[in-house]
Amino acid sequence: ACAISPRAIVSDACASYSTLERLNRNVKPALDELTQTTDFFSHYRVNLFHKKCPFWNDENGMCGNIACAVETLDSEEDIPLVWRASELGKLEGPRAKHPGKSAQAQQPERPLQGRLGEGVGESCVFEYDDECDDRDYCVPEDESASSKGDYVSLLRNPERFTGYAGDGAKQVWDAIYRENCFSRSSFPRSAALGSDLSAKGPAAMDFKAVIEAAGRQQVLEEQRQIQPLTPFVAKTGLEYEDECLEKRVFYRVISGMHASISTHLCWDFLNQTTGEWQPNVACYMDRLHEFPDRISNLYFNYALITRAIAKLGPYVSQHQDYTFCQGDPEQDAITRSKVMAVTEKATSVAHIFDESLMFKNGEGPSLKEDFRNRFRNVSRLMDCVGCDKCRLWGKLQTVGYGTALKVLFEFDNNDAPAVPILKRTELVALFNTYARLSSSMTAIQEFRAMVEQIEKAS
Ligand code: FAD
Question: CA–CA distance from 191 to each of 167, 206, 271, 414 (Å)?
Answer without folding.
Answer: 21, 7, 38, 37
